[in-house]
Specification:
Layout (H helix, E strand, L loop, with lengths): L5 H24 L36 H8 L10 E2 H12 L3 H14 L8 E2 L34 H9 L3 E2 L5 E2 L2 H18 L7 H11 L10 H9 L19 H13 L4 H15 L7
Antiparallel strand pairs: 1-2, 3-4
Helix pairs in contact: 1-4, 3-4, 5-8, 6-9, 6-10, 7-9
The structure holds protoporphyrin IX containing FE (HEM).
The site of protoporphyrin IX containing FE (HEM) has 23 residues, from helix 2, helix 3, helix 4 and helix 7.
């Protein structure tokens, strides 16, 4: 058990947000990394050559986060997903995905706090991150996972959800490759929330869950560059495609501040109403009870 006083927390957060703002400004005036040179020299994945992918085996620890699981599947984090320090999370997320140092520190430190652990001294298994409560960030109506009410182990993607997500992309690049738009991501989140609300008797999403949901879904449009062909491998196998690199080329990476316009676009585009009636009539039909929506 590790306790940080609310004042120490507020000071630390203010420091991280100021640092983040500084990096956001420096990114604006510094040349971007060259294509094919985004992953730093010496870091696994340099030049698009990712360490061997090995699917998780029985007993390995995995969590609800495709980004972290992919790192374990490539051996960038321990392959068994166990005994990981918070500084290790910080540095591997930074090198693999080009999130800014402030972002990486914030999320790793947030996870430590959430789990009542010391950032500097304690270690966790990936599955520990799936704390499902008002204190945790694992929530219902995820893009790739069934709700914890139905599936206790959140370590594996639910392939029908992933397929539906991938099929929802409506954009195209100049070469005709399918791309996600923010509206696509909002639409899928809206449907997932309406369905979960109708089907899951324990459905719960507080404001922080909704914010986290819009933020982590926004990595589709930023770090992963919206590309369906890349996301297919990342979401189905939790594998980084050969030759892949983060689509963020700013030298100090994707900052908390620079992610916010995308998060807001996704969050404000979410509207469960078009899906609510169908979701509750499907739920009623499956349970054999009269449809409350009619
Ligand atoms: C220390 C770093 C991180 C922590 C603690 C973390 C934690 C989590 C957790 C708990 C969830 C589950 C939320 C839910 O219930 O849907 C999640 C989802 C997600 N994370 Fe992470 N994550 C981290 C880093 C990353 C990185 C580096 C990426 C991508 C580059 C990423 C991408 C995603 C995506 C796309 C989802 C949504 C999955 C879904 O909705 O099914 N995360 N993360």
């Amino acid at each position: 058990m590790f306790l940080v006083t609310p004042i120490a927390r507020a000071i630390l957060d203010a420091g991280v947000f100021s640092w983040d703002l500084g990096l956001t400004l420096i990114n604006l005036v510094t040349p971007r990394r060259k294509v094919d040179h985004v992953t730093p020299a010496g870091h696994p994945g340099e030049g698009g050559k990712w360490p061997e992918y090995i699917a998780p085996k029985e007993g390995d620890s995995r969590c609800s986060c495709p980004g972290l699981n992919a790192m374990a599947n490539h051996g960038i984090l321990p392959r068994d997903g166990k005994n990981i320090s918070f500084p290790e999370l910080y540095s591997t997320v930074r090198g693999t995905y080009n999130f800014s140092p402030s972002f990486c520190f914030y999320v790793a430190n947030f996870a430590a706090r959430m789990l009542n652990k010391s950032y500097g001294k304690d270690r966790i298994d990936l599955a520990d991150i799936d704390l499902h409560s008002d204190k945790g960030i694992e929530h219902d109506a995820s893009l790739t996972r069934e709700d914890i009410h139905f599936v206790k182990d959140q370590g594996k993607p639910h392939l029908p959800f992933v397929r539906e997500l991938l099929d929802a992309a409506s954009g195209k690049d100049t070469e005709g490759n399918m791309l996600f738009t923010a509206a696509d991501v909002s639409r899928v989140l809206s449907k997932r929330r309406a369905e979960s609300r109708a089907n899951n008797p324990e459905f719960h999403m507080n404001l922080s869950h909704r914010t986290f949901s819009s933020s982590n879904s926004s990595t589709i449009l930023t770090i992963f560059g919206s590309r369906v062909s890349d996301l297919e491998s990342i979401f189905i196998e939790e594998r980084l495609p050969e030759g892949w690199e983060s689509r963020i080329r700013e030298p100090f990476g994707l900052t908390i501040a620079s992610l916010q316009p995308t998060v807001l676009k996704v969050a404000f585009g979410i509207d469960e109403r078009p899906y609510a009636a169908e979701a509750s009539s499907t739920a009623a039909a499956e349970s054999g009870e009269p449809n409350p929506a009619t």
